[in-house]
Automatic annotation (TrEMBL):
The keyword Protein biosynthesis does not apply. The keyword Protein transport does not apply. It comes from the Eukaryota. May be involved in transcriptional regulation. GO terms for molecular function: DNA-binding transcription factor activity, RNA polymerase II-specific; RNA polymerase II cis-regulatory region sequence-specific DNA binding; zinc ion binding. Residues 12-39, 40-67, 68-95, 96-123, 124-151, 152-179, 180-207, 208-235, 236-263, 264-291, 292-319, 320-347, 348-375, 376-403, 404-431, 432-459, 460-487, 488-515, 516-543 form the C2H2-type domain. Keywords: DNA-binding, Metal-binding, Nucleus, Repeat, Transcription, Transcription regulation, Zinc, Zinc-finger. One of its GO terms (cellular component) is nucleus. PANTHER family: FI01424P, ZINC FINGER AND SCAN DOMAIN-CONTAINING. Gene3D superfamilies: Classic Zinc Finger. It is found in: Nucleus. This is Zinc finger protein 729. Belongs to the krueppel C2H2-type zinc-finger protein family.
Amino acid sequence: MNMLLHAGEERHLCEICNKSFTEKGYLKSHMLIHTGEKPYVCEICNKSFIQNLRFKRHMLIHTGKKLHVCDVCNKSFTEKGILNRHMLNHTGERPHVCEICSKSFAYKHNLKTHILIHTGEKPHVCVICNKSYFEKGNLSRHMRIHTGEKPHVCEVCNKSFLLWSSLKDHILIHTGEKAHVCEMCNKSFAYKHSLKKHILIHTGEKHHVCVICNKSFSEKGSLNRHMRIHTGEKPHVCEVCSKSFVHRSSLKDHILIHTGEKAHVCEMCNKSFAYKRSLKKHILIHTGEKHHVCVVCNKSFFQKHYLNKHMLIHTTENRYVCHICNKSFFRKSNLSVYMLIHTGEKLYACKECNKSFAQKDILNEFKLIHTIKKPHVCDTCNKSFTRKRSLKKHMLNHTGERLHVCEICNESFVYKHCLNNHILFHTGEKPYVCEVCNKSFTQKCQLRKHMFIHTGEKHHVCEVCNKSFTQIGYLRKHMFIHTGEKPHVCMVCNKSFTEKGHLRQHMFIHTGEKPYVCDICNKSFIQKFHLKKHMLIHAGKKPHV
């Protein structure tokens, strides 16, 4: 070992790293860093230390002694140095300043870590996958991914976690605590990051912009998920049927189809649902709540998009007016259809049979009758189709697969549009309104069929007697007159009916059910028209006998 004279002092120099010390004992202690020797061993937990001072500090963990007490909050510490650092929380002092960006820190080790951001240095490297980190603690936590270690265990349910912070978040599930409160609307959150996300609703900030379509997002994660729309990436794959999804949440929802799990139960009627959002919608049936209210006429709706459609009734801008009778319409196409009432014109003619129609889309549908080519054939029943997607839809009739489930009553459907139409029966909403007579319908196709009443079109013709009908369904019913067929048979008395609705009403005779009830006197009836007749008594009118 070499000795140096420095400013009149004898210095002891380390031959390995050239670090110098004023005392020989300090040099000896320092040399243990190079040799790896740790002579001070704890008899309780076998942890070893290079320095006696660190060993003594460690022993306080086992004895539980915390001699150094904070005068402000009475928190106690095993070491005076830790107390001194703690005091900075009360004083707000940040004595350690970055020379590059002037950011200040309460603790020196925080400054050291911060400087690595400027240098880009990540000195702590994983020996397994070579991933590097600014801090040793981050590397230690990363290593648990490789070892599978989850040292932080919940005392309530024994679930274990990689990180202490994850355990802290998990414990809030058991306590129900929501300590983070929004100063703008007083909504509270269990997690600080949830509050930060929520605040963006008030500020409207969206810093993350898609470079392809310029759509902006408040969170980077939302942008990343949005990018999958452009890339077509679907990284979340179902292990049961291999169907893939853009979002993990969509996969989680999908898996419930396979498991059949329905964890969300209505407290009023005990009906269970796979999804929490389904339960929320269902509860509206019990409460009758309709949160979306029209500011013009106070009519309320279950869902916002139905309110938006309704608002068109009140809109006066950009109206299209009939020059004959001054009736106005929201859309030019609706005015064009309406004008046919006055003109009687049928501009669109079929080239095959010269049959003419008032609307082009109806002609296009009709032309399929003449189409001979139906290249897509069902292997099960040999029915053929003009379009491949039509065949795919048809195949669901054979497989019995019904993927589209009503969140309110759990009835399932082969096609999504059937589900959408079905939901309107629960909400009672009829968003499609006839601009001629203001009659409203649950389905767009019903409105289109209804419009034939105003246009006078009857393009479905009976081949037996040449009677024409506005709808193909009416023609089919009419054909039973010629065939004498009554396909709907009562299983109780074998009476048969031409229409399914007539059979349904007939069944009430056997069940004794009277579904149509008078709101005034509670008298009930099997058929709706009997109730209507009865209501005339309360109105002071005499029903026609």
